[in-house]
Amino acid sequence: VQTCALPIFTKLLEMKNVEVEIAALRLIGNWRLVSQVTQLAKAAGDGSTERVRATATQALRDIGKPATSALTKLSQSSDMATRKRSVIALTGLDPNLAAEPFYAALAETQDEQEALDFWRGILNMKNAGEVIAKQLPKNGISKFAAQAGLIAAKDAGRNEPDLIAALTPYAGTVMKAQELTPDRVTELIRLVENEGNPGRGE
């Protein structure tokens, strides 16, 4: 199938029709056409639209282990959106390979919602929390990043005790007044109720 499909998909991916290109990318992923990994990587990094790039990245993940090298390279892209998508996809294939690029991208993320979304994307992957906890950088992470991680670790009833234990020392509880938005106050109250220790005055 892969040999026969190669010319067809090459033509489809070269067409100037985004919908056709996206459909072709999905088929490549669904059929796990390893022969198309190079084409997918190109589309994931340089695709004409965000949808094309996201679909190509998902197709690489669908192909599986043969795509880990391509996703590892994409996780070092100069484009932050490409990096994060690739790190999340790589986490789904091999969390150990994804840990270092994850923390590198997280360190460069300045927006709170983006950091939270990034954590959530990572933690949606099987066993990711445990692996990410074990590979926490030796010099730790910022309070900002740790707080986002704690929130994500508690989302939707997730059970991430190792990750929560690893992040808590870096999260802190004292925040500047301007950081205490209503949503943040609510979240901190919830965290204290669930994780607080009365003996420490929490």
- Report the C-alpha radius of gyration, rounded: 20 Å
> Helical stretch count?
12
Residue share in helix: 55-70%
Order of helices and strands: HHHHHHHHHHHH
Distance between the termini: 61 Å
For the report, how would you describe the main beta sheet? Answer: none
Stretches with pLDDT under 50, minimum 5 residues? 173-180, 197-202
Mean pLDDT: 86
Which descriptor suits the 3D outline? elongated
Structural class: mainly alpha
Strand proportion, as a percent range, falls in under 5%
- The beta-strand count equals 0
Describe the structure.
The protein is mainly alpha-helical and 202 residues long. Helix content is 69%, strand content 0%. The protein contains twelve helices and no strands. The protein has helices at 2-14, 18-30, 37-46, 50-63, 68-74, 80-93, 95-107, 112-123, 128-134, 143-154, 161-171, 182-195. Helix 4 (50-63) runs parallel beside helix 6 (80-93). The longest helix has 14 residues, at 50-63. It is elongated, with a radius of gyration of 20 Å. The model is unreliable at 173-180 and 197-202 (pLDDT under 50).
